[in-house]
């Protein structure tokens, strides 16, 4: 069974989570068509890296060396492909 919050702070957190998530997903689907397929793929690949960073900063989550290495690889690949795509357009 799910234990629901028993105080105001818990309910504010649940409502805030629902609002932020729905606004984020709505914004994502509204903005992705403006980016195009390649840039959309890059943005979506960065999402887990940003979530891990926010969890580390806001919640004090600990990241293993392997997780940090994975994030560095993802960010490096996105930067590489963005620079490569920009050079091809020029």
Give structural attributes.
single chain, 90 residues, mainly alpha, 3 helices, 84% helix
Write a structural description:
The protein has 90 residues and is an all-alpha fold. Helix content is 84%, strand content 0%. It contains three helices and no strands. 0% of the residues are buried. The mean pLDDT is 88.
TL;DR?
The chain is an all-alpha fold and 90 residues long. The protein has helices at 8-35, 37-59, 65-89.
Number of strands: 0
Mean pLDDT: 88
Strand-and-helix sequence, N→C? HHH
Beta-strand percentage range: under 5%
**Gyration radius, rounded:** 17 Å
In one word, what is the shape?
flat
Distance between the termini: 57 Å
Biggest beta sheet attributes: none
Compute the number of helices: 3
Instruction: Summarize the amount of helix as a percent range.
Output: over 70%
Structural class determined from secondary elements = mainly alpha
Poorly predicted runs of 5 or more residues? none
Task: Walk me through the topology.
Layout: H1 8-35, H2 37-59, H3 65-89
Helix pairs in contact: 2-3
């Amino acid at each position: 069974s799910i234990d629901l919050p028993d105080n105001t702070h818990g309910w504010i957190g649940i409502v805030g989570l629902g609002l932020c998530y729905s606004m984020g997903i709505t914004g994502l689907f509204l903005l992705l068509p403006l980016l195009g397929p390649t840039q959309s793929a890059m943005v979506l690949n960065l999402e887990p890296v940003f979530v891990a960073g926010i969890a580390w900063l806001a919640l004090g989550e600990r990241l293993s060396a392997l997780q940090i290495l994975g994030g560095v690889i993802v960010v490096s690949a996105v930067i590489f492909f963005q620079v490569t795509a920009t050079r091809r357009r020029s």
